[in-house]
Amino acid sequence: MKTQFEVGIIGGGIIGQSIAYQLAKEGVSVLILESNKIGNGATSAAAGMLGANSELENNDAFFQFAKESQQHYHVLRDELSQISQINIQFVDKGMYKLAMTDAEASALKDVVKYHESVEWHSKEVVLESEPTLSATIKGALYIPEDGHVSPYHVCAAFSKSARLLGATILENTPVHEIKKTVTNEYTLSTPVTDFVCKNIVIANGVWSGHFFKKLGLDAGINPVKGECLSIKSNDIGLEKTIFYDHCYIVPKGDGRFVIGATMVEDDWSTVPTIGGIQSLIEKVTPIIPSISSAQLIDTWAGLRPQTIDGKPYIGQHPEGENIYFATGHYRNGILLAPKTGLMIRDLILNRKQNEDYVKAFSVNRLQVQTMR
């Protein structure tokens, strides 16, 4: 078994796989160590929304990063399909962000003034397009760029493509310790064997906090449990994703609709609760009344990694070590995976970076702001 690599990635979810794919494309020898199964954590629990406009409201570096990542899915759709023969199920029919009150309608109309890529659609226009929705809506913000993908298929496509390009991916191989060698490389201790890597990327979601502590960094990651359900109904016909009050309804094209997600902070359980699922049903029933007769297919929950300010950590160890972080993506892991992979690749290969992104996602950004 090969034990020496240029880059070792801890975590085999969609973030780690995206990074491995981009590095493998450049001929870099890459190792992914996943403690469970590939994409079995937060990736498997996500609905796959690419909500750059619906989720993010400030026109800052985070928003621009998200928009670029969203757009890169247009490249990946064909690129990953050619290499892996896996369809990532990219759907770009847009999204409706609903207004249920006059105040919400007024706020969404204001958004149009500052974002050229969105439109306000009246109640009549919305219902003509999506007649399943309740007649009590006030209208909606139409966001043509916010589509969705299948997280499972994206992660699988990244993984298979990375393997075909030479990456080594090991499942059920947790990393217990990172040690620096006398030659300024890093030893990753696992139950299988020790691996030696020149560069390390920590990309294991909520469990990244373990390595932050080990490395003496004060950058916490907290779990936010997200519960979801899927339904099937012949009475519901949606083309666009529907978004309201941090709740989404995503049509999957096979008669299924994914509804999510709750936000339960500091809960490490991945078992959905009756209360959580009930709260989702109560939230979407006024939007789509016919949902009450739908068939319940499945329920599940995942742990989203949240940082103190809600933005991910994407960058190099603040002391210049060859240790990189790609974690804390919270509700936007699927959306941000493409651009995260590109940014970490360029950091490792010492390519020019967008300094606004480097500052926005640095591990010690909060300490720097405090000092100012």
Which strand-content bin applies to the residues?
A: 25-35%
How many strand segments? 17
CATH class of the largest domain: Alpha Beta
What portion of residues is helical? 25-40%
Please summarize the sheet with the most strands: 9 strands, mixed
Total number of domains: 2
- The H/E string reads EHEHHHEHEHEHEEEEHEEEEEHEEEHHH
Per the CATH scheme, the topology name of the largest domain is: FAD/NAD(P)-binding domain
What would you call the shape?
globular
Radius of gyration: 21 Å
Query: pLDDT below 50 for ≥5 consecutive residues: which ranges?
Result: none
CA-CA gap between termini: 49 Å
Question: What this model shows, in words?
Answer:
- There is one protein chain.
- The protein is of the alpha/beta class.
- It has helices at 14-25, 42-45, 52-55, 61-84, 102-114, 123-129, 151-164, 208-214, 274-284, 333-348, 355-361, 365-371, and strands at 4-10, 30-33, 95-99, 119-122, 139-143, 168-170, 177-180, 186-189, 194-202, 222-232, 241-244, 247-251, 256-260, 264-265, 295-306, 313-316, 323-327.
- The protein folds into two domains: 4-86 and 150-220 and 309-371, 3-Layer(bba) Sandwich (FAD/NAD(P)-binding domain); 95-145 and 222-306, D-Amino Acid Oxidase, Chain A, domain 2.
- It has twelve helices and 17 strands.
- A hairpin with a 4-residue loop joins strand 8 and strand 9 (194-202).
- Helix 1 runs parallel beside helix 7, helix 4 (61-84) crosses helix 7 and helix 4 (61-84) packs across helix 10 (333-348).
- The longest helix has 24 residues, at 61-84.
- The mean pLDDT is 94.
- It comes from Metabacillus litoralis.
